[in-house]
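Page 37, top half.
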Amino acid sequence: MVVNLSYPLILASGSARRRSLLTEWGYDFEIVAPDLAEPPATRGQALTPPAWAEAMAYAKAYLVAVDRPDAIVVGADTVVVHGEEVIGKPKDEADARRILTTRFAGRNEVITGLAVLYPPDRQIILTHVVTTIMMRAMTPPELEAYITGGAWKDKAGAYALQEGGDKFVLSLDGSESNVVGLPGEKLEEIFNRIAK
């Protein structure tokens, strides 16, 4: 359900998946991708994975909000945790193959940090959402097809539910849209708080 907001809405992300979700949910919004070179998520080991995702989401939102104090700015960042390892976006095809071969099957936690900065006094809501997924291993032909198809590109954990990755899911506990990159239920809750 669309929440009526009193200020313009900006998505601080170049992600086509996040843009698609906001559009699907019926929001009118602008897209302003922040000029931010994202460090590998593994460098954030000094922080917990949720704290890392929140920090990156805040950095994205802040960089946009500085120039748009009139708007509600939403930043988001997603990481995947497999065992004790934080998995960000693969660097290249070889890295995607490594992740999908050795860090794919089993229990994964998908964590999306959310930062919402909003008027009138540039208030901040910072939170995160965790979705737990159990994945089955890919067969060699499935792995090759997935690599060739390119669905791993620019995806935390090297997979995307919306691009064929859902057939490897054994169970999903939590927000499905969170796995795509933007937890809709939490965002609606935040927008309702802002709208009051």
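Page 37, bottom half:
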Amino acid sequence: MQTGKDITKQTVHHLNSFLRGELSAVETYRQAIDKMNESPHRYTLEQCARSHSERARVLAEEVRRRGGEPADSSGAWGTFAKLVEGGAKAFGEKAAIAALEEGEDHGRDDYRKEANDLDARAQQLVEAELIPEQKRTHDAISALKHSLS
């Protein structure tokens, strides 16, 4: 049987995983914005970047509240950001938007898959705040992708 300390440790681990994903999303959006400086879709990308940045702030705060040390980099997720940057350079706007949508898919799936492994308070935060906001950014990028097709 898991103790309260084990559940807190597990929750911190998952929150930090979410945090690394959000940090990667922020990096990825910033790189895409830089590469598509003249794009009429820049505003949508900037809104999504701000949303991911706010989620990263909330997650870092939750990790600290539980006595953990928040992740300060995207770690392996940073590789995805580099791929998007390369895609935007080599293949253009459509490829970059498609890669952003793929990242949004992954973030959505991670939240859904791991929400049940959290303590009750963190689970409520994920379900009430983070997943709806993830859905909003996913839908915005998905709509943008379909408008470019």
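Margin note: The chain has one domain: 4-148.
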